[in-house]
Amino acid sequence: MNIFKDIVNLLLPPRCAVCGKVLDIDKGLCDECIAEFDFIKDAVCYRCGRPFGNLSDGRGHGVCASCLHRKRYLFRFSRSAFGYDEFSKKLILDFKFHDRTDLASLLAKMMYVAGSDIFAAGIDVIVPVPLHYTRLLKRRYNQSALLARELGRLSGVKVCCDAVAKIKMTRPQAECSGAERLNNVKDVFAVKRPEEITGKRVLLIDDVLTTGATLTECGKAVRRARPKSLDNLTAARAL
Prior knowledge:
Blueprint: H1 2-11, H2 31-36, H3 65-68, E1 78-83, H4 86-97, H5 103-114, H6 116-121, E2 125-128, H7 133-139, H8 143-155, E3 158-159, E4 164-166, H9 178-184, E5 189-191, E6 201-209, H10 213-223, E7 229-237
Parallel strand pairs: 1-7, 2-3, 2-6, 6-7
Antiparallel strand pairs: 4-5
Helix pairs in contact: 5-8
């Protein structure tokens, strides 16, 4: 098997998923592209995952000012792998709109590291944020579902892609202003398979968190099915 692998690598050498540079070791990215990622790590809010200052919730966990004054939490934890900037935006858009489905494995590995505390706390089912069926037919795949399946392989956690449905067609969020985004996705999600949600520790998956409107509305729908806990994990987030 090692000889066969060596022959394959000789004929089809591993390349960087972003720039295409030939790699000596198949690690997905070259050193130059790795350095371009704004990875979210170390000092982040215990609840929402946003980089924060030195605040504490009294239990030794840092929390941002917004979470410190919030009385109710929709999500137990929110985590993202890297910041959404000009470099990562191209990667996400290629993955989402330009058939670069091969990027799902790489992005999921980053997400798995970023969400290590979520998986350590316990997850029963991974649920991707759904697309409306008309958009799914046009795009041919749901990028969030691809990420969810890869995370399921990495973690061994069950994945359920049809637990939640998007029941109304909406404008793309990218075409909406910050104020319009929440209204655009209001009441557009519904739980179709409550048996996969009720009493379970649920992890919602999406590709990007910008204003949080989509994850918030999808999370509200999931909450109505009474999960034991609810977390979210994305590849990127706007900082």
